[in-house]
Amino acid sequence: MSSYRYRFVGYEKLPSGLNAGDVELHCRLPDELVREIRNSGYAKRYHLGLAVQLSFLALTGRNADAALKMPTAMLNMLCEQLGIHSTAIASLKSLYSNADRTISNHRAWVREKLLFSTYDSNAEERLKAALSQQAIDASSVDELLASAQEWLFDNRIVLPGQRVVLDLARSAFQVVENLALATIRAAVTPVRLRAVLKVMHEESPTPGISLLEWLKQSAGKHGVKGLKEVNSRIDALKTLGVHLWDLQGLSIGRIHAFAQAVVNRPPSETARRIEDTRSIEIVCFLKHLLGELSDEAIFRNNRHTSDFVHRAKKRVQAKQAQRAIEYRHSIESMRSIAADSGREAHERLAAIMALADDMLGRPLVSQAEVVRETLTEQSTQVRTILDGMGCLDLKGDPEHADSRLVLALQALRAAGAKELPVGFDTSLVEPKWRPFLDVPDRKAALRAFEGCALMRISKGLRGGSLYVNHSATYQNKASLLIPQDEWERDKVALCEAYGLELDPRKALDLQYELLRAGLADVEVGLEKGLLEIDEDGCVRIPAIRAAEEDPELRHTNQRLSDLIGATQLPDVILEIDSRTQISTMLLGRQPEDAEELIALYAGLLAHGTEIDAKAAAAMIPGVPVSRVSAAMRMHEAPGRLRAANDSVVAFQQRFPIVKLWSDGKKASSDMMALDATRHLFIARTDPRRKTAAAGIYTHILGSYPVIFDQPIVLLTRQDAPAVHGIEAYNSNSEDRIKVDLLAVDTHGYTYSGMSVAKLLKFDLCPQLAGLPDRKIWTPRSIKVSEALEQIAIPAITEKAIREGWDRTMRLIASIKSGRVSVAWALARHGSAAAGDEVRRCLDQYGRLLRSVFLCDYFTNDVFRREIHTLLNRGESVHLLQRAIYYGRITAERGRRRDELKSISGSHALLTNVVIGWNTMKLQETVDRLKSSGQRIDDSILRRIGPVHFGHINFRGTMSFSVARYASVLLKGETASKRAPVKRAEK
Predict the structure, then answer these.
(1) Residue 93 pLDDT more than 80?
(2) Band of the pLDDT at 973, cuts 50, 70, 90?
(3) 717 — phi, psi (to 5°)?
(4) How many whole angstroms separate alpha carbon 76 and alpha carbon 59?
(5) In whole angstroms, what separates CA 636 from the centre of its chain?
(6) Rounded to whole angstroms, how far apart are CA atoms 834 and 860?
(7) Which of 32, 360, 365, 872 ranks highest by number of CB atoms within 10 Å?
(8) Residues facing residue 676 across a β-bridge
């Protein structure tokens, strides 16, 4: 049976429009079941009825209704499998000649063969228990209904009537709403709650709009004005007391779902909801918004701090140029003095020495020194940022130096100090800053202290030594991890469950053994001339040679392209949707009619390409802008775009040709820059193209589909998104093949990233820039041969690994249990967390892992080529992505993180749709050629990927021929058949 386990689960009838490919994929019975039918002892005239019931129950989880009409293509295929003549009889009752008792007996036989049990009171109680857990994070009753049907299907329980399951889903959802209401009433007093609900629809600080509408707006542009807008919203929320509300009884997902309901509808519609519903949604919206705004404020503060550093870099270059001029003038003066015959020799020598001492006594022009000078001089901008931080309520360990510095800063600002007091404790700042504080000008000393504080606060928030309790991601590290007492009690069981090694010695012994073997291979490679170490201690390995151009490859590729032919993007989307039901996943239910389906596609195009809602409505006749905008907001629902992408990836992976490209265990990841306005708050200047851009980080399987996507900021380390994406993919399903190797470029790895990836059961393999200068780190306990001494650095500290191992295992277990994300873990244990035990452990262990990796990379040509191929395939997918999204993110787009995620997810979905369609057509064309006796070598097909796009028209007026697929895609297919059938025009 098909690998799409849930495509038809819960259906009461199969779509009449199933084509031969769908039938072959979903309805074909395994050979053993065909033998069971033949050996069942039932009369041969009932064999087709048994086959229909087996196929229907295996697909939908339901018993086939007696009056059910089956698709003709399905009947023909089952007849072929059974070796009987095809029949025109469509209904199950006709197959049994109205023998209802026989149908009932056969249902029991079918259930027995498929190991299904009937739905009874025991099954209902189990389902209720499962729904009570699933309802915690479900965003709607429709989503919970689908989860309930999938749970019954997974547990091999025959689905009861639709109304039964729907009533249970509604009851479970209502329980969560009641719990939410009780939690809110316990957290917010009735008087305060009524006041909050009332003030939401009063005038905001911006005249003409309500407070609720003002809070929903995004600050947009990067700049001091935008930062002040974010801070003003945080202040407004804290005035309402939102930061004091304790909603720990509700999951983060549930709070987000309630908040999204407010975001996705106009304030006037929210005002018409009953009071209990408004109370739940408004309180969750305000709580969620406070966390998001706090994160955004911290992000903007950190970016402004980074801007100081970038400005200082420009000053460094100017100062170095000025210093060079001064050196030249000094040398010219020395030359003049030496040539001055009117002075005694000893006088000239003394003058030259004085000039030399003056020049040599000047400090070097370092970037760090200039940054400190810049922060001291630009006190107005520094104080503006510090003023805005007042709304964040910074906290920290009282014993930590960062916390003491923040308390000293707060005391000075509370006292309105204009200058730094004499005798101020300068031990609070780093030694490099103390000369700026120990100056007679106490006003300048205060400016220096404020500059130092700004840098330390930024670093402390990123490293976790400082935190903000009402933030979503910058909370206290200890509060997010597995509680310490729970860890001490259950760590042995947790490590066994997650496959973690609790004993650091065993983990180290394994890597030491691999390192010794790798060093031996490097030494053998040196002897055989496979690599060499030059006199500067640089490793030299042969360059990877490009494969020679094959005329047969070019001919076959062109021939396949000609046979596939040209097509339109709407047709591609519709055909893939009919095979994967992505529209159902995006809506959370089947579309009711063609208009709703086309509006959904328009919203997908408005997010996933450079057009906006207005342009999408203009390109797709008959779709109003309001429906496109509503569909765009619907795409922001958590998890739906990811589920749709997963469905298309699963569809693409089932074709045999995919196995020629990859085994599904290897992937690559890299960032693609999307052009954007410079005012977008996450935009940075792309160093290659010198234009403002936002980053889209994608993970791409060796067989080309995009398996994970996320928006990121340019010019930042990409180890966190790289590792996070693979962990999310591997943990999302138990059925799919797990990725065990991820190829990245230099930006996608750090020592900590390699450690976390290894502990999560996959290898992070970077293609390093400056490879000849990369050294092999070793522990002192491993002796290196004389031949390798030039490239070995015996500096791995085993003690740091042992001392931090227990806390590191606690962090990894917290990731595996879903308490924290990989991205959060690496962000809080990066370079900003220097001195942290976990950070030191991850850093030293990562150095050991990189050494093992380099030994393989130096000596294994096949391994090097494999990594290179994976990264090249990722680049070919980026070319397709740029063809889909060739413009830029406009100023009014991407101002909210949810919208950025939707842009990224929609873009990935359109990319996967094209890749899935190309793969399907390649497979069909190859099969057709082979069936006609034409031979195509697998070695040729292995080098023909599904990322070509010249045959697809992505632009122009679009018309979706929904009527062709109405029976598969629409719930009410009779209305959909009236949809116009047109072709897209260029």
Answers:
(1) no
(2) low
(3) -60, 140
(4) 17
(5) 14
(6) 35
(7) 365
(8) 889
Find residue 523's DSSP bridge partners: none
Write the DSSP symbol of residue 157. B
- Please write the tens of the pLDDT for every residue from 252-307: 888 988 998 898 888 888 889 999 999 999 999 999 999 999 999 999 998 888 88
Cα–Cα dist 755/745, whole Å: 17
**What is the rounded distance in angstroms from the CA atom of residue 279 to the CA atom of residue 178?**
11
Q: What distance in Å separates the CA atoms of residue 56 and residue 222, rounded to the nearest whole number?
A: 56
CA angle 279/283/288 to nearest 5° reads 150
Q: At 507, is the secondary structure helix, strand, or coil? A: helix
Beta strand pairing call for 692-701 and 706-712: antiparallel
Q: How many CA atoms lie within 13 A of 604 on its CB side?
A: 29
Identify which of 687, 677, 690, 674 has the alpha carbon closest to the alpha carbon of residue 883.
Answer: 674
- pLDDT over 90 percentage in the chain: 60
- Element holding 695 (H helix, E strand): strand 692-701
pLDDT band at 924, cuts 50/70/90? very high
Angle, in degrees to the nearest 10, between helices 252-263 and 162-187: 90
**What are the b/e assignments for 199-215, b being 16+ CB within 10 Å?**
bbeeebeeeeebbbbbb
Secondary structure percentages of the chain, helix, strand, coil, to 5: 60, 5, 30
> How far apart are alpha carbons 631 and 623 in whole angstroms?
11
Helix (H, G, I), strand (E, B) or coil at 304: helix
Three-state SS annotation for 88-133 = CCCEHHHHCCCCHHHHHHHHHHHHHHCCCECCCHHHHHHHHHHHHH
Q: What is the pLDDT of residue 141?
A: 86
Residues 152 and 134: their CA atoms lie apart, in Å, by 13
The rounded distance, in Å, linking the Cα atoms of 236 and 290 is: 10
Distance between terminal CA atoms of the chain?
41
**Which two structure tokens, joined as six digits, stand for 809?**
């295992």
Q: Coil, strand, or helix at residue 536?
A: coil
Residues 61, 65: Cα–Cα separation, whole Å: 12
- Name the nearest CA neighbour of 909 among 613, 601, 610: 601
Residue 717 contacts residue 749 (beta carbons within 8 Å): no
Pairing of strands 741-745, 763-767: parallel
Q: In sequence order, which residues have a C-beta less than 8 Å from that of residue 607 and are 6 or more positions away?
A: 632, 635, 902, 903, 905, 906, 907
> Do residues 895 and 533 lie in contact, with contact meaning Cβ atoms separated by under 8 Å?
no
Structure-token pair, residue 959: 């018309």
For residue 891, give the DSSP letter.
Answer: T
714 secondary structure, DSSP code: T
- Distance between CA atoms of residues 358 and 356, nearest Å: 5
The residue length of the chain stands at: 986
The Cα–Cα gap between 859 and 73 comes to 55
Residue 71: phi, psi to the nearest 5?
-60, 140
Largest CA-CA distance found in the chain, in angstroms, rounded = 131
Cα–Cα dist 811/841, whole Å: 12
Q: Give the residues across from 696 on adjacent strands.
A: 672, 711
CA 324 to chain CA mean position, Å? 47
Determine the Cα–Cα distance for residues 40 and 298; give it in Å rounded to an integer: 69
Residues 6+ away with beta carbon under 8 Å from 758: 764, 845, 849
What's the rounded Cα separation, in Å, for the pair 279 and 967? 41
Of the candidates 402, 463, 465, the one whose C-alpha atom is nearest the C-alpha of residue 429 is: 402
C-alpha 158/C-alpha 156 separation (Å) is: 7
Both tokens assigned to 400: 């930590």
Integer Cα distance of 90 and 69 in angstroms:
5
DSSP state of 485: H
Partnered with residue 889 across adjacent β-strands are 676
CA-CA-CA-CA torsion for 39, 42, 45, 51, nearest 10 degrees? -60
| pLDDT tens for each residue of 808-834 | 999 999 999 989 999 999 999 998 998
Q: Who's near 860: CB < 8 A, 6+ residues apart?
A: none
